[in-house]
Amino acid sequence: MVQITIIIIIGAIIISMAAAMFMYTQYQTNFITANSGESVTVGPVEYTVVFDGTNQGNNETTPENTFVKIKITAKNISIEKTRISGGQFYLVDDKQQKVQPTYGKFTPEDLLDEWLEPNKPVVRTTQFDVPFDELKQYNVMIRPSKQQSSVDTALICIINC
């Protein structure tokens, strides 16, 4: 009787470990790497990101350092509307420090919050306040929104790849 109980307990432990390992692999982040100008798909959205220069802001918003501007082309490849926002994008420098975008009314193309219709691409820009160095490598990280419920994360090299 004791032997059967021990076998049942060991079997339950093995089954729970297998279930935990399965769940871990299902929800582990899938990193996608690309270079500037290449398309990447994160969740239901296909993105193309390119470096669009640097600037010192405008009359309303000035940076502490330098604004690094990126141009984002986003296309919803699903059959339902989906949302993108500037909060999904981060600039990652060569020291792996993440910087969130700075919001301002720099151009009519600035990305704040946007609903994407299926198969209709939009072009938007966003800017990051960083101590810019032309010799360093900069990457843009794209994470899916909660509504998109994806495990994909893209890392796109935009400068000095």
Automatic annotation (TrEMBL):
Q: Does the keyword Transmembrane apply?
A: yes
Alphabetized UniProt keyword annotations: Membrane, Signal, Transmembrane, Transmembrane helix
Sequence intervals crossing the membrane: 6-24
Would the keyword Membrane be found if you checked this record's keyword annotation? yes
| Domain (DUF4352) ranges | 35-141
Q: Which InterPro entries match?
A: DUF4352 (IPR029051), Immunoprotect_excell_Ig-like (IPR029050)
Q: Any idea what this protein is called?
A: DUF4352 domain-containing protein
Q: Which organism is it from?
A: Candidatus Nitrosarchaeum limnium BG20
